Amino acid sequence: MANLDELAVALRSHALPPVAQWHPELCGEIDIVIRADGRWEHEGGEFRRSELQMLFAGLLRREGGEYYLVTPAEKLRIRVEDQAFLITLIDVQDGCIELLTNCGERLSLGREHPLQFSWWQEVLLPMVEVRDGLFARFGRSAWYELVGMAEERDGGWWIVSDGEEYHLPDE
Questions:
Q1: CATH number for the domain including 33?
Q2: What is the pLDDT, as a whole number, of residue 171?
Q3: Where in the numbering of this chain does the DUF1285 domain appear (predicted)?
Q4: Are 92 and 82 in contact (CB under 8 A)?
Q5: SS3 at position 132
Q6: DSSP assigned state of 59
Q7: Is the pTM of this model over 0.85?
Q8: What are the backbone dihedrals phi and psi of residue 4, each rounded to the nearest 5 degrees, phi first?
Q9: φ, ψ (nearest 5 deg) of residue 159
Q10: Can you spell out the DSSP letters for 4-49?
Q11: Tally of domains within the chain
């Protein structure tokens, strides 16, 4: 996708707030759930405005196994079924695989955002750390596109991005 940069800028036209520097007391919970398929829901209904979802994604913090929306004055627990983000688009620029999440965050697969694998409900899933312990799982089409870039070598399959090499597990 030639316009991945433009799409990322359009989706996230503002800098992320410094949530790691904010330490308010826990105020309670809010009925927001991030579903395993990347959908955000509030009180059982799906978010209708992507701008609101992206705003909340910028306020998201993970502490241990819990997820919170954090502002300078409030900290509210939310529920996340699998991972906080979903990788939806992939592009290759100058030997680097660029990833775009469902919340408009652009990542470069490599040293800062390495390809990792984790078990979830007895399935091995690929993911990348987005920031501060928040991970993005690959959406099905993005994963298939990435696998299509793999090179066969030494009896296995490898992904190369930004000088880093990742072996794809056999499972």
A1: 3.10.540.10
A2: 63
A3: 17-82, 93-168
A4: no
A5: coil
A6: T
A7: no
A8: -60, -40
A9: -110, 135
A10: HHHHHHHH--SPPP-GGG--PPEEEEEEEEE-TTS-EEETTEE---
A11: 2
Ranges of the chain whose pLDDT falls below 70: 1-14, 171
The DSSP string of 133-166 is: TEEEEEPHHHHHHHHHT-EEETTEEEEEETTEEE
Half-sphere exposure of 90 (CA within 13 A, CB side): 23
Please give the pLDDT value at position 104: 86
Please check whether residue 124 lies inside any domain of the structure. yes
The backbone torsions φ and ψ at residue 86, rounded to the nearest 5 degrees and listed phi first, read: -130, 130
Would you state the pLDDT for residue 4? 43
Instruction: Write out the residue range of the structural domain in which residue 139 sits.
Output: 85-92+107-168
Is the domain of 75 the same as that of 112? no
Please give the biggest Cα pair distance in the chain: 54
Q: Same domain, yes or no, for 60 and 126?
A: no
Flag whether 98 is in a domain: no
Q: What is the pLDDT of residue 80?
A: 96
Whether 101 is in a domain gets the answer: no
Please check whether residues 9 and 70 belong to one and the same domain. yes
User: Does 143 reside within a domain?
Assistant: yes
Residue whose entry in the numeric block shows the structure tokens 């996230």:
12
* 70 lies in the same domain as 12: yes
Q: What is the pLDDT of residue 57?
A: 92
Q: In this structure, are 75 and 136 located in the same domain?
A: no
